[in-house]
C-alpha cells in the first residue's frame, strides 16, 4: 500500500549521507573520545570534525558547541543550566506561551530553584507579542527563551528584534532553533547567547542534538560526571550519531535552496489539491516552507488522523496525552483558538523526500477521509 509520511516536524528519515558517515562507527570499533589510546584519539578526531561542521554552520567558535542527546536536553540545559549558574539578583525568566514543552516544562524545576517564570503572550500567528515582552523585561530578568520557528504552525519569530529588546536590560537570550537549524542563520546575525538544535529534524539520526553557548555565558551542567563537553554536559559522546548529524547538517547547507524550493513546491501542491476542504491556518505569515497547518471545520482531528493512517497518510495534531488521545494544542489555545477549533486542526509537514506527486496523492486521500468522517 502506498504511504506518504507528512510529519517531518516530528522527525525526518535518515539521509543517505548521514547513514554512510555513521556506518564505519557502527562496525564494533571502540569509540570513547576521552580515551588517550589510538582508538580514543581517532574518536576524538571524528568528534572534532563534527563539532567543526556545526560551529561553521552557526558561525561560532569550535568550543561554543555542546553536544547533547536531543533537542529536549539542549533546551533543558539552556534554561536550567543558566539558572543554576546564576545565583544573583535576576530571578525572573521569560518564555513565550507557544514554546515547545522542552522549554515550558522546565518551569517547575526553575521555580524550585527560586525563579519566577512568566509567559509572554503570542499573537494569532503564534509569534511573540513584542509589546508584552517589553512590558515584562526588566533588570530582574535573567533569560528570555523564544523559539525561532513554531513547530506546530511553522511561523517565525523575529529573533534579532527580541534580542535587541532584551539587551536593553542586559538579559540573556535563548532560541529553540530545532525546527530551523541548520538554516537558522549565523549566531552573530541572530544575536542570541544560546541556541538549541536536534539532528533528527534535518535528516540526521535520533539521539543527538546540541546547544550553542556564547563564550563567557555561564552554564552549569545538569548531567555531571566525566566533565565532557567542556564541563557542561558529562557523558561519553555518541560518535556515530555526532558524525551522522554533521553529514546531514552539511548536506542541508549545501543543498539549502533546492531543499527549501522542493518543500514549498510540494506544500503548495498539497494545499492546492486540498482546496476548500480545509482552512489554511497561516496564509499570510512568514513560515517554514514545509508546514501546512490546517483546520477542517466540523471534523474531529483524532478520528481523521486514525482514518488517514489507515489510508496511508501520516500526519499529526497537538500532543498525545497519557490516555493516548489528542489534547488540544497549547500553541493554538495561546493563539486564541477555542478548544473546539483546536480539535479540528491537523499539521502536515513536508520533507526533502516528499515529491509533488506524493503531495497531490496525499491531499486527494485527505479529501476522501474528511468527507468519510463528515458523513460518519
Ligand atoms: C521546537 C522544538 N523544540 C524542541 C523539540 C524537542 O526535540 P527532540 O525531539 O530532539 O527532543 C522539538 C521536537 O519536536 C521541537 O519541535
Provide a brief overview of the structure.
The chain is α/β, with parallel strands linked by helices and 376 residues long. 39% of the residues lie in helices and 14% in strands. Helix 2 packs parallel to helix 9 (239-254), helix 10 packs parallel to helix 14 (356-375) and helix 11 packs across helix 14.
Considering the chains and any ligands shown, give keywords for the structure.
single chain; 376 residues; alpha/beta; Aspartate Aminotransferase, domain 2; Aspartate Aminotransferase, domain 1; 2 domains; seven-stranded mixed β-sheet; three-stranded antiparallel β-sheet; binds pyridoxal-5'-phosphate
Provide structural commentary.
By secondary structure, the protein is α/β, with parallel strands linked by helices. It has two domains: 16-253, Type I PLP-dependent aspartate aminotransferase-like (Major domain) (Aspartate Aminotransferase, domain 2, 3-Layer(aba) Sandwich), CATH 3.40.640; 256-375, Alpha-Beta Complex (Aspartate Aminotransferase, domain 1), CATH 3.90.1150. Helices cover 39% and strands 14% of the residues. The chain has 14 helices and 14 strands. It has helices at residues 16-22, 38-58, 71-84, 101-104, 107-112, 130-136, 159-167, 187-190, 239-254, 256-274, 301-311, 330-334, 339-342, 356-375; strands at 4-5, 65-68, 92-96, 116-120, 141-145, 172-176, 194-198, 209-213, 279-280, 291-295, 313-314, 319-320, 326-327, 345-349. A seven-stranded mixed sheet has the order 2-8-7-6-5-3-4, with helices on both faces. Helix 11 packs across helix 14. It is globular and about 65 Å long. The two termini are 24 Å apart. The model has no long low-confidence stretch (mean pLDDT 96). Pyridoxal-5'-phosphate is lined by residues 10, 70-72, 75, 100, 102, 147, 151, 176, 178-179, 198, 209.
